[in-house]
Amino acid sequence: NAVSVSMAADGDSFLHAESAAQKIMSGNGIEATQITRGNLIDNGLKGVAGIVGVNQSAGSINNQDNAASMAVGPGSMAALSEADLGMVNTGNCSRETGVALTDTLANGALATASGIVGVNQSSGCMNNQANVVAVCAVSSPF
User: What is the pLDDT of residues 2-60, one digit of tens each?
Assistant: First the structure.
């Protein structure tokens, strides 16, 4: 997870917040013969608040990432916020036979969650999943 925050209390400020992550998967091979593979979020994460990132992977060689960037400045001149994420899959091979894959959110998981909440679940192989958020806010009396 990558998080960047830039804040100023007041005044003539320029704010810049940037979070970045890069993931590369190249030349990997997977041979799976498991009968069952899965993820479960059961009755969890209830009432979480703010910036929350959750990644689950029961598979192989998965790219999962959460990036958040925030620039906030009351009375500031300018704010810039960016969240960059690069994911690359190349030359990979997956051979799976007789595999049952499941991803489940159950029994009120994430109930009453608020804010920026990102959840990635992957029971497969070589998946790219991302939650990327950029927020900037400037308030000016002009």
Answer: 778 888 776 677 888 888 888 888 888 888 776 788 889 998 889 999 888 888 888 88
Query: 83 and 1 in contact (C-beta within 8 Å)?
Result: no
What is the SS3 assignment for the chain? CEEEEEECCCCCCEEEEEEEEEEEEECCEEEECCCEEEEEEECCCCCCEEEEEEEEECCCCCEEEEEEEEEEEECCCEEEEEEEEEEEEECCEEEECCCEEEEEEECCCCCCCEEEEEEEEECCCCCEEEEEEEEEEEECCC
| pTM of the predicted protein model | 0.72
